Amino acid sequence: MAEWNNLLLLLGDAVIYFAVLAGLFRARKRLGIGAFFCALGVMHFIETYLASVFYVSLPLGIVTSPGSSVLFTGKLLLLLLVYIREDAVVVRQPIYGLLFGNLLMVALAMLMRHHTPMALAPGHVIDFGFLDTMGSLMVWGTVLLFVDCILIILIYERTRSWLADSIFLRLAVAGAAVLTFDQVFFYAALHILTGAPPSVLVGGWLAKMMSVSVYAVLVGCYLCWFERPSVKRRSAPRISDVFDTLTYRERYEDLLARTGRDALTGVFDRGRLETQGRAMIEDAIGTGRPVSLLLVDIDHFKSFNDRFGHAAGDTVLKRISRDIMATVRATDQVYRFGGEEFVLICDGLSAGPALALGERVRREIAGGAEGGERVTVSVGISTCDSRAANYDAMFQVADQRLYQAKAAGRNCAIGERVASAGTPVRLAHVS
């Protein structure tokens, strides 16, 4: 009866532990993730202490410690949760803190041996032997935790190739594999320092396997109900490249925002135009929304570079990109197509407003000057119609109109405006 009571209590411990820490993690945008990490770190001492001295018996003759089966197992699965919802950089932060804190504790305990202590009451004196044991176990446990986190992330990602998006199974498999490794190596230290019998190794492993199944369900439910992870497939990482594999997701959103940016001007580059821009136009055409493409070319830019140098030319490019970004709508996308050409894709913009936008861009740029030299642009505009039913056709029409703008004397925008009768007419607006 006592064994079953212990099992139910351990299950309750796990549920309470996970509920509180998962709640803090869920509130990280309001409280900051530091609250979650502090709570996790506070539990590290009691976790190690219980794992070294406090054991209970479970059904089937299993002997385990709540510190190992409940607290450590839960901590490892919670750190995997942090990786899934944040990234590897965030996961490493508490581990580094625990490692340096534990090393500092051991160093200070060694220094404090040189003090001359006084007893506040008979029998109440410091036990340096206890500090030595705990310090050694905590340092070793933190080193193992660092390795465990690398392994559990790698295995979790590796299982994607054969378990697809079965979150519960992937959590369980990764946790079981890593905690088997951890149990062997932590028991080795525990046996050396405390003389723990082999039954602790076997019983602790069985209890951890049961705990993994419980925490896999808890973490999986949390992800499904509160923060579903991205279902976008990623290739499985290479075990041989541990560091790169661990950090490839670091600051994913920031990297995604930076990918495809032109290094000089900050607008999207030609590669992003070929993927994102093409997809925007095809989506608009497929759903019947109006969409326009504006091709902006700097007039006499080669001559400007020859006279003033490429550094001045770079300044012009940066200034013009800022002017364009300040003029377009928030939903419009701006790309640098080539040396002095920019492409604007304007979803939901019909022919008349597109021509008006091209004219505003032209005026904004013509209003500035670099070193006393006025810089202007020519604009060719294409709006989706029967002659431009896809991205390539729209680009060709815009390119033709750009050449017409150049031939018309430059510093002008050429596109289409729909007349009141509904008949498209060409409009060239020259300054």
Question: Could you explain the architecture of this structure?
Answer:
This protein is of the alpha+beta class and 431 residues long. It folds into 2 domains: 2-113 and 123-254, no CATH class; 260-430, Reverse transcriptase/Diguanylate cyclase domain (Alpha-Beta Plaits), CATH 3.30.70.270. The protein is 64% helix and 12% strand. The chain has helices at residues 2-26, 28-31, 33-53, 66-85, 88-112, 128-158, 160-163, 167-194, 198-225, 242-247, 252-258, 270-287, 301-308, 310-327, 351-366, 391-407; strands at residues 56-58, 62-64, 291-298, 333-336, 341-347, 369-370, 373-374, 377-383, 412-418, 424-430. Helix 1 packs across helix 9 and helix 5 (88-112) runs antiparallel to helix 6 (128-158). The radius of gyration is 32 Å and the shape is elongated.
Short description:
Helices cover 64% and strands 12% of the residues. It has 431 residues and is an alpha+beta fold.
Number of structural units classed as domains: 2
**Multimeric state:** single chain
Order of helices and strands: HHHEEHHHHHHHHHEHHEEHEEEHEE
Distance between the termini: 93 Å
- Sheet with the most strands, sense and barrel status: 6 strands, mixed
Proportion in helices:
55-70%
Low-confidence stretches: 236-253, 418-431
Structural class: alpha+beta
Shape descriptor: elongated
Strand order across the biggest sheet? 4-5-3-8-9-10
Radius of gyration: 32 Å
Tally of alpha and pi helices: 16
Average of pLDDT: 82
Number of strands: 10
